[in-house]
Task: inverse folding
């Protein structure tokens, strides 16, 4: 296996050394899956449905703001909706940097998983 270190991967994917937490990774994955149709409540519901993990709306909104600050997502306001009492949804889309960050995280995790000896994960029942 080719020896690839953290700094090489960051350079390869042009990812700044900005840490992305596990919850931010989940939110970013859901935004990527939604392909431009992601908004706070949909992200929260999808995390709950896809992972069985409860995510509250405040945590989702905070993560979306952090991801936008890091340049991993962009957002724009949707149209006014009578069914929402005249309020608009803020739709999020993954950016090229966000996609590169996800690729970096996936490759890093895969590289680490491949290094675990097979016997290390076998436990008697």
Result:
């Amino acid at each position: 296996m080719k020896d690839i270190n953290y700094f090489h991967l960051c350079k390869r994917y042009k990812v700044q050394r900005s840490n992305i937490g596990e919850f931010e990774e989940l939110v970013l994955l859901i935004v990527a899956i939604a392909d431009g149709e992601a908004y706070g409540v949909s992200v929260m519901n999808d995390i709950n449905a896809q992972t069985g993990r409860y995510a509250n709306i405040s945590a989702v909104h905070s993560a979306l703001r952090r991801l936008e600050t890091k340049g991993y997502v962009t957002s724009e306001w949707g149209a006014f909706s009578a069914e929402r009492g005249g309020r608009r949804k803020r739709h999020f889309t993954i950016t090229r940097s966000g996609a590169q960050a996800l690729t970096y995280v996936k490759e890093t995790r895969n590289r680490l998983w491949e290094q675990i000896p097979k016997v290390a994960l076998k436990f008697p029942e």
